Automatic annotation (TrEMBL):
Entry-linked SUPFAM superfamilies: UDP-Glycosyltransferase/glycogen phosphorylase
Residue ranges of every copy of the Glycosyltransferase subfamily 4-like N-terminal domain listed in the record: 10-167
Single Gene Ontology MF annotation: glycosyltransferase activity
Protein name per UniProt: Glycosyl transferase group 1 protein
GO biological process: carbohydrate derivative metabolic process
UniProt keyword annotations, A-Z: Transferase
Entry-linked PANTHER family: GLYCOSYLTRANSFERASE
Pfam families for this protein: Glyco_transf_4, Glycos_transf_1
Annotated source species: Vibrio parahaemolyticus
Gene3D superfamilies from the UniProt entry: Glycogen Phosphorylase B (3.40.50.2000)
Limits of the Glycosyl transferase family domain: 186-301
Length: 384
């Protein structure tokens, strides 16, 4: 398996759960293309490319070819039969290495939007993907939305849909632990890295409006900081709206589940997503979800109801598990008036705060995304 890094990301967490639950019928090798001080657990010790990440286009290109070389070395030395890659960078390495094995690519986001956000490198990556993905033995998308978009963007039709698997019982158990942070009163929680993709500036702006009718409510953001400067921008917005006492940035938390469990709702303001695992984790813990209609979130929150069939221009979508609103355009905003999409998200959060939640129904919904279901489908692809 090829993974982008060891820790602090949704794809890495998915790969960890997959590795730990894959049966003993297979010998595993985990190859991480980046090193980190911390790591999720895996069934075997990961092989890591021990190389300093260079800067600039030339440096990134050299790193890319070093990663390809190491993959080829691993495949030949260990006589590997199947290589599963997680995420776009790893998929490209899997394909450009030209290894003679079964290659299973996994797509974890709406790649046209993700590549657009990466500028020139995203453009190049998209061109390579459209050229090479059709040669893969199997391609997996983590949600129906991701599958449909990828088939159009890549021009291929052999994509399977397999939802990311989750250890539901383990999540529920960890949610019963005492939280690392004591949060007084009612609060909304957001979980995910502080980076452009998560759209946290929208959330803080929405929260500033929500506070007018919920003066005792807090906003808690859990997640490590990416190196794109967004944290300082977010703190500037917090300061402008005088929310220093109400908005808390907790950083990376080893066990976020007690915090999610005790929240009034989980808020997801992502610009683009694949299948946000935190939404499934939240339902496992009995906490409803309010999210934009990005990636496969609607498939989690609404079940068989598709937001594409509902006019989000007029109202947000409601279900027993939460609410779905119109996707944000992705423009970075600070002190302007709330956009239509932001006001709709604010209204959805207020609606969710006012309704009674049946936690058992949410947990039952989460069981549909259990890891056992995902493993069975991947076994079929491996043995195919």
């Amino acid at each position: 398996m090829i993974i982008p890094k060891l820790y602090n990301g949704g794809i890495e967490k998915v790969a960890s759960v997959f590795s730990l639950n894959l049966c003993d019928d297979y010998d595993q090798y985990i190859y991480s293309i980046m090193n980190q001080d911390e790591s999720y657990d895996f069934a075997v010790k990961p092989i890591i490319l021990e190389r300093r990440v260079a800067s600039g286009y030339l440096g990134k290109l050299l790193n890319f070819f070093y990663r390809i070389k190491l993959l080829r070395d691993i495949v030949h030395q260990e006589d590997i039969d199947v290589v599963i890659s997680f995420g776009e960078r790893c998929n490209l390495i899997n394909m450009i290495s030209f290894i003679k094995v079964k290659r299973i690519l996994t797509i974890h986001s709406v790649i046209s939007v993700e590549n657009k956000s990466k500028g020139f490198l995203g453009f190049v990556g998209g061109c390579i993907a459209r050229t090479t993905y059709s040669n893969a033995e199997e391609v997996v998308a983590v949600s129906g939305v991701v599958k449909d978009e990828a088939e159009k963007y890549l021009g291929i039709s052999n994509i399977s849909k397999i939802y990311n698997g989750h250890e539901i019982d383990s999540i529920i158990e960890l949610g019963n632990f005492e939280a690392d942070y004591k949060i007084e009163g009612d609060y909304i929680v957001a979980v995910g890295r502080i980076t452009y993709a998560k759209g946290y500036w929208h959330l803080i702006r929405c929260f500033s409006k929500l506070k007018l009718t919920n003066p005792n409510l807090k906003l808690v953001i859990v997640g490590g900081v990416e190196l794109d400067g967004r944290l300082e921008d977010l703190k500037e917005i917090v300061s402008h709206f005088k929310l220093e006492s109400e908005v808390q940035f907790l950083g990376q938390v080893n066990n976020p589940y007690p915090i999610i469990k005790n929240a009034k709702l989980l808020a997801l303001t992502s610009i683009y997503e694949g299948l946000p695992g935190v939404a499934i984790e939240s339902l496992s813990l009995g906490t409803p979800v309010v999210s934009t209609n990005s990636g496969g979130t609607a498939e989690i929150v609404l079940g068989d109801v598709s937001c594409n069939e509902i006019n989000l221009e007029s109202e947000f979508c409601k279900s027993d598990f939460g609410c779905i609103t119109k996707t944000f355009k992705g423009d970075f905003l600070k002190f302007e008036e709330l956009t239509f999409e932001e006001q709709q998200f604010c209204d959805a959060m207020q609606f969710q705060l006012d309704v009674d939640v049946k936690g058992d129904n949410l947990k039952t919904r989460a069981l549909e995304f259990a890891i056992e279901n995902a493993i069975a489908k991947y076994r079929d692809l491996i043995e195919k």
